[in-house]
Structures are given as structure tokens and as C-alpha cells.
Amino acid sequence: MRIKNTNPMGDVFVVALGREVAAGETVTVTDEQAAPLLAQVCEVTGSRNWTLGESATPADEATKKGASK
């Protein structure tokens, strides 16, 4: 699954991913990682911190297949 950082605060460090995700960046995550991130809402603006990203690219699919071996 791909999700996009739409957090109005900008770049965020995501502990579950072990890395910083830049503002507007789309990342590939598991469904389990995505669920709590997609539920986050900014308390200041009321906007969602994460949205569904664009479809996976062929490189993402290749990575996913390699990880499942």
C-alpha cells in the first residue's frame, strides 16, 4: 500500500518505519503500518496527516515480491 504524508507540520519521523518521511512524500508500507497512520488527524487544523498515495510502481511490486521470498 502507498500512503502520502499530508501532515501540515511537514516532515515527520515515523517510528514504525524507522525513518523520516518528507512533506508530500509517498511511501510504501504494509497494511498493518498504514492503518494507524491513516487514522491520524492534526489536532490544530483537523486535516488528515496521511492519505492514500498513488498506485504502486513496478519497482514497488518487485520490492514486495523480493521481500515475500
Question: Quick recap of the structure?
Answer:
The chain has 2 helices and 5 strands, in the order ββββαβα. With 69 residues, it is α+β, with helices and mostly antiparallel strands. It has one domain (2-67).
Describe what you observe in this structure.
- With 69 residues, this protein is α+β, with helices and mostly antiparallel strands.
- Helix content is 26%, strand content 23%.
- It has two helices and five strands, in the order E-E-E-E-H-E-H.
- A three-stranded antiparallel β-sheet has the order 4-1-5, with helices on one face.
- Strand 2 and strand 3 form a beta hairpin.
- The longest helix is centred in the C-terminal third of the chain and has 10 residues.
- The chain is globular, with a radius of gyration of 13 Å.
- The model has no long low-confidence stretch (mean pLDDT 86).
